[in-house]
């Protein structure tokens, strides 16, 4: 082979090597770029999951409290109790509607509103978020606090479908019922005498406290009475975390609501005409209160040392 032939072969070989290096470098750059994009997506989605886990307790606490108010507004307006408080709460908390009726109070507090706001931010990063409330369970942890357990399925997908998360988690929050209205009063008085849940913190050793308790509509914890949640359904069963107040007839009279002097004045018993072993005419309690109790409540209200009658 002559020198010219050898030079040609070397030149072609060198050019081939250079082109191969360029090709491989370009592919390597593209691959690394794709990796960077996918990594960015994964980090964005991972950050979102962390934020949801951090935010959801607060979201449920605010939304749940407002949902209770929306539910109170509904029963007060319609004069009807719910058949399943948990399912109604699931609707209100998710969609901001009560029995299909929009609740203005929930406009910015429902889970729909939260995830809509989240999507506006995540869409800018190429990520779409969807969710579904699978279950809501409400339960009292004591007479004055309700625990929310909300099971949510969350789906997170990037627009290019290179990565996704699909997970279900139960989120919990505790809501204090003090300051909320008792749905029993709202329905039974046609919303003319609403009563706010306030705990009586003083002892009934001083009977003036008892009279103030009745006139101001305070509540005590009572295992003989239904809980706050049960009152949304007019469920009159006793509960370990029950609460009760004493109906102040003057408030009803002032609103032109018929009053019944001989009924037991424990709220759920009075409004539902329940009977029991009555005691009345307590000698140290104002006659204007027309106080009638069941005999198993005498000590609950500090009246064990007062003279009273069973001829009620």
Name a few traits of the molecule.
8 helices, 312 residues, three-stranded antiparallel β-sheet, 9 strands, disordered N terminus, 2 domains, alpha+beta
Mean pLDDT: 86
Describe the global form.
elongated
Listing every helix as H and every strand as E from the N terminus to the C terminus, the arrangement reads HHEEHEEEHHEHEHHEE
Low-confidence stretches: 3-38
Largest sheet: 3 strands, antiparallel
Taking strands numbered 1, 2, ... along the chain, how are they ordered across the largest sheet? Answer: 3-4-5
> Helix proportion of residues, in percent?
40-55%
Can you describe this structure?
There is one protein chain. This protein is α+β, with helices and mostly antiparallel strands. The chain folds into 2 domains: 3-176; 183-297, no CATH class. Helix content is 42%, strand content 19%. It has helices at 3-78, 85-95, 111-122, 183-188, 207-216, 228-231, 249-254, 267-271; strands at residues 97-98, 101-102, 127-142, 145-158, 164-176, 219-221, 243-245, 278-280, 292-294. The strands form 4 sheets. The protein has a 3-stranded antiparallel β-sheet. It has a two-stranded antiparallel sheet with strand order 1-2. Strand 3 (127-142) and strand 4 (145-158) form a beta hairpin. Helix 1 (3-78) packs across helix 2 (85-95). The radius of gyration is 33 Å and the shape is elongated. Residues 3-38 have low confidence and may be disordered.
């Amino acid at each position: 082979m002559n020198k010219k032939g050898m030079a040609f072969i070397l030149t072609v070989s060198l050019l081939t090597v250079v082109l191969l290096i360029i090709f491989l470098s370009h592919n390597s750059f593209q691959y690394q770029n794709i990796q960077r994009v996918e990594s960015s997506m994964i980090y964005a989605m991972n950050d979102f999951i962390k934020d949801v886990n951090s935010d959801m307790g607060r979201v449920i606490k605010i939304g749940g409290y407002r949902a209770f108010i929306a539910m109170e507004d509904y029963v007060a307006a319609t004069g009807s109790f719910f058949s399943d408080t948990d399912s109604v709460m699931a609707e209100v908390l998710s969609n901001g509607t009560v029995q299909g009726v929009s609740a203005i109070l929930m406009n910015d507090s429902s889970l729909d509103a939260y995830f809509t706001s989240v999507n506006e931010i995540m869409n800018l990063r190429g990520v779409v978020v969807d969710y579904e409330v699978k279950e809501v369970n409400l339960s009292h942890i004591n007479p004055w606090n309700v625990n929310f357990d909300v099971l949510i399925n969350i789906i997170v997908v990037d627009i290019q479908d290179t990565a996704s998360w699909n997970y279900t988690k139960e989120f919990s929050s505790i809501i204090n019922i003090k300051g909320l209205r008792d749905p029993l009063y709202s329905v039974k008085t046609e919303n003319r005498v609403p009563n706010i849940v306030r705990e009586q913190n003083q002892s009934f050793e001083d009977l003036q406290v008892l009279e103030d308790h009745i006139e101001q509509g305070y509540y005590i914890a009572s295992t003989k009475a239904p809980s706050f949640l049960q009152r949304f359904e007019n469920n009159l069963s006793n509960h370990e975390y029950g609460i009760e107040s004493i109906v102040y007839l003057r408030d009803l009279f002032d609103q032109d609501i018929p009053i019944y002097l001989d009924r037991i004045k424990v709220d759920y018993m009075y409004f539902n005409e329940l009977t029991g072993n009555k005691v009345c005419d307590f000698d140290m309690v104002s006659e204007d209160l027309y106080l009638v109790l069941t005999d198993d409540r005498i000590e609950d209200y500090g009246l064990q040392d007062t003279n009273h009658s069973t001829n009620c």
